[in-house]
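Cross-posting from the chemistry board since nobody answered there.

I work mostly on the small-molecule side, so proteins are not my area. We synthesized NAP and want a rough idea of how it might sit in this target. Sequence and SMILES are below. Is it possible to get a predicted 3D structure of the two together?
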Amino acid sequence: MSKVAIIGAGPCGLSALRSFEQAEKKGEKIPEIVCFDKQEDWGGLWNYSWRTGSDQYGDPVPNSMYRYLWSNGPKECLEFADYSFDEHFGKPIPSFPPREVLYDYILGRVKKGNLKDKVKFNTSVTNVFYNGKNFEISYRDKKNDKISKDTFDYVIISTGHFSVPFIPEYPGMKSFPGRIMHSHDFRDAEEFRNKNVIVLGSSYSAEDVALQCHKYGAKSVTIGFRHNAMGFKWPKGMKEVFHLDKLEGNKAIFKDGYEQEADAIILCTGYLHHFPFLPEDLKLKTGNRLYPPMLYKGVVWQNNHKLMYLGMQDQFHTFNMFDCQAWFARDVIMGKIKIPNDADINKDINKWVSMEEKLENPDQMIDFQTEYTKELHDLSDYPKIDFELIRKNFKEWEHHKVEDIMTYRNKSFPSPVTGSVGPIHHTAWETAMDDSMKTFLK
Ligand SMILES: Cc1cc2nc3c(=O)[nH]c(=O)nc-3n(C[C@H](O)[C@H](O)[C@H](O)COP(=O)(O)OP(=O)(O)OC[C@H]3O[C@@H](n4cnc5c(N)ncnc54)[C@H](O)[C@@H]3O)c2cc1C
Ligand SMILES: NC(=O)c1ccc[n+]([C@@H]2O[C@H](COP(=O)([O-])OP(=O)(O)OC[C@H]3O[C@@H](n4cnc5c(N)ncnc54)[C@H](OP(=O)(O)O)[C@@H]3O)[C@@H](O)[C@H]2O)c1
C-alpha cells in the first residue's frame, strides 16, 4: 500500500483529506495518509491569528487574514458540491459571510469524519528529497523542537501562496516617520482611525484594505496603482492615483504629481510562491497567475508525476476548484487516472498557458478558470455542481462591483448546489461593524 504526504491543512489540504475519505466510503482501499500543518489547528488562512512576524516557536506566521474580513466573492461561487451551506447552517444564509462563518463551514465538512487524526499539527515540513524511488520528508515538531524523517510514495503540496509577502522598496521609505507595513501583517483597520493612509497595489488586497480603512474611520485613503487602476467609484475620502514615486518626510509624491501627507503606508503588493522545503527540481516557480506552468491539469508536477500541487493558481474559483483538483490528484495516486506521455502533457500545459496569456478582462478570466475547473470536474467522481450558474454569479458579482463598490456585498445569489437564494443580510456591509457569526446568523 502506498503512503501519501499532504503538506498543509488549509482548504486545499482539507479537500485532499476529504477526497480520500470519500473513496474509502465507497469501499475503495486508500493509501496511508499523513498530513502536516505548521499551525496548531486546521483551516489555513481562515484560522485567524492575531500574531504577525514569528510564532512562539520562531516560525514565520502564515496567516494573512484580518479582523472584520468578509468574503469578497459570493459564497455561492465557492460552495462544496458535497456539503451545501444549507446543510451546514440548517437554513439559507446571506451571500457574503464574514470570515468566522466561512471558517465554520469549511471545518463543518471535515469534522464529520475522523480526519483530524491524520494531521500532525505544530509540525513544519522542512525538507523534501526525491531519492529516485520515493520522497524522504524531514519535519520539525515545533513544540518539542524535534526533527524527524519519514518516507512517502506521493507528496501533495497544499501550503498556499498568500503567506509570504512581496515587499518592494520605494525611495524615502527609510526616513518615513510613520508606519510601513504589508497587508500580510494587517490585522485591524481601527489602528488607522483619523489617519491619512496610503495603500499601494491595485488588486483584491488593495481594494479591501483601503475599504476597511475607510469604513473604520481613516481620515483619507489614497491608493497608488502601478499598471492599471481598479477604477471603482470610490466614496468621498478615498481616491486612486498613479504609482508612488517617492516619499519625502511624511509626504507621498506620486508619478502623476499628486502629493499627500501620510501617517501610514500599507503595501498591498501581493505574495511570493515560496517553498523553502523543496529542492530546485521539484519547486514551482511562478507569479500569481491563472495557469502556472509545469503543472499538468494545474496539479501534477510535469517532471515528477508523484508530486502534486493544489491551489497554486490565482483564484476566482476557490473551494470547489480545490476539491476538483484534490479529487483529480487522488485518482492519479490511486491509479484511476493515467497520466499521458511527455509530449501530450506539454501540449496540454501549453494550450492552457497560451490561452491564459490572451485574456484581457475579468469576464474572460472567469470563463477561463470556469472552463479549467469544469474540465477537471469531468475527470473524477466529484459530485455534480452547476458551474454554469457559478460562471453567471461571478460575472454578475464583477458587474455589481463596478456599479457600486460599497454595496456589492449586500446582494444575493442562487446556490449551484441546492438552488436556494441567499437572503439579503439584515445590515448593509458598510454599517455592519460586528462580524461575529452570532450576529451574522441572527
Ligand atoms: C487576505 C486574504 C483574504 C482572502 N479572502 C478570500 C475570500 O474571501 N474568499 C475566498 O474564496 N478566498 C479568499 N482568499 C484566498 C485563499 O487563498 C483561499 O481561500 C484558501 O485559504 C487557500 O487555501 P490553501 O489551502 O491553498 O492555503 P492556505 O489557506 O494558505 O493554507 C496553507 C496551510 O499550509 C500550512 N503550511 C505552509 N507551509 C507549511 C510547511 N512547510 N509545513 C507544514 N504546513 C505548512 C499553513 O500553516 C496553512 O495552514 C483570501 C486570501 C487572503 C490572503
Ligand atoms: N476577502 C477579502 O475581502 C480579501 C481581501 C484581501 C485579499 N483577498 C484575497 O487575497 C489574495 C491575494 O490578493 P492580493 O491583492 O494580496 O495579491 P495579488 O492579487 O497578487 O495582487 C498584487 C498586487 O500588487 C501590485 N504590486 C506588485 N508589486 C508592486 C509594486 N512594486 N508597486 C505597486 N504595486 C505592486 C500588483 O500590481 P500590478 O498589477 O501593477 O503588477 C497587484 O495589484 C486574492 O486571492 C484575494 O482574493 C481577499
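Reply from a structural biologist on the board:
Welcome over. Reading the output above for you: The mean pLDDT is 98. Residues 69, 71-72, 162, 168, 183, 200-206, 208, 226-227, 268-270, 288, 315 surround NAP (ligand 2) (CB under 6 Å). Happy to explain the C-alpha cell format if needed.
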